[in-house]
Amino acid sequence: MSVPDAGPSVVAMTSAALPLPTARPRRVLADVLPGTLVRDVALVVGVAALTALTAQLRIPIPGLPVPVTGQTFAVLLGAAALGPLRGSLAQVLYVGVGLAGLPVFTGGASGWEAVAGASGGYLLGFVAASAAVGALARRGADRRVLSTVGAYAVGTAVIYACGVPWLAAVAGMPIGAALMAGAVVFLPGDAIKAAIAGALLPAVWRRVR
User: Fold this and answer.
1) 3-state secondary structure of 42
2) Phi, psi (deg, nearest 5) at residue 59
3) According to DSSP H, which parts of 26-174 are helical?
4) Where are the chain's structural domains?
5) Helix 175-182, helix 145-171: angle, nearest 10
6) In the 8-state DSSP scheme, what is residue 198?
7) For domain 7-18+27-208, is the CATH number 1.10.1760.20?
8) 205 pLDDT above the threshold of 90
9) Coil, strand, or helix at residue 68?
10) What is residue 65's predicted lDDT score, i.e. its pLDDT?
11) For residue 141, what is the DSSP state?
12) What pTM does this model have?
C-alpha cells in the first residue's frame, strides 16, 4: 500500500499560516540522540510499535464504523520526533507488519481485509501525515506551542483527507455523512491531543537546550 508524499505540498500550503522559526532544515528530537543507522532503525521500529500499542486503546462509538483510538497521537508525535523520512517509514512498517498478519491494527485485526475496510484510508493517511508533520518539525514547528498545535492540525487534516473519502466509498455513505462519522465526531479528542503535543514537544526542546 502506498500514497503520494503529501508532506512538501502540505508544508507549502500551510507554512504562511504557521509561525515557523525558519525555512531551513533543522534538527528534530531524534537527531539529538547519539548514533546513526542503529539509532534510526530502533526509532522507526519503536514508533511503529507505539502505533500498534495505541491502536489497541479502542473506544467504539455506537452507530459509527470507525472507533476512537490513540493512534493519531502516536503517529503525529512520532513524526515530529523522527522527521519526515523516519516518521513515514515507521508507518509503512506498521502497515506492512499488519498486512503480513501480525495483529497490530485496531482491535487486534490484521491482513488485507482490515486494510480494505472502513479504516483503511486512515492507515494511508498515517504515512502522508507523518511526512507532512515531520517536514514541519524539520523547520522548527515543534519548538513552540502554537506552531506545534498548528503542525498537529495539519497532520490531522491530512489523515482525514485520506480516511473520509475511503470511508465513504467502503461504507457506501454520502461524503457529508462520512465527514461527520469519520472526522467531525473526533475533533474534540483531536483538540485535546493537539494541546498535549503543544505542551510536551516544546518542553522537551527546552530540556534539550
Assistant:
1) helix
2) -120, 100
3) 29-32, 37-55, 71-82, 84-99, 111-115, 120-138, 145-171
4) 7-18+27-208
5) 130
6) H
7) yes
8) yes
9) strand
10) 66
11) G
12) 0.84
Tell me if 106 sits within 8 A of 65, measured CB to CB.
no
Amino acid at position 52, single letter? A
Q: What is the pLDDT of residues 182-197, one digit of tens each?
A: 999 899 889 999 999 9
Distance between CA atoms of residues 76 and 117, nearest Å = 22
H-helix or E-strand spanning residue 176: helix 175-182
For 172, the grid coordinates are 457506501
Q: In 3D, which of 178, 194, 10, 184 has the Cα closest to residue 88? A: 10
Query: String of b and e for 117-139 (b: at least 16 CB within 10 Å)?
Result: bbbbbbbbbbbbbbbbbbbbbbb
Contact status, residue 150 vs residue 18, Cβ threshold 8 Å: yes
Question: By percentage, how much of the chain surpasses pLDDT 90?
Answer: 70
> Which tens digits make up the pLDDT trace of 14-41?
444 454 555 567 899 999 998 889 999 9
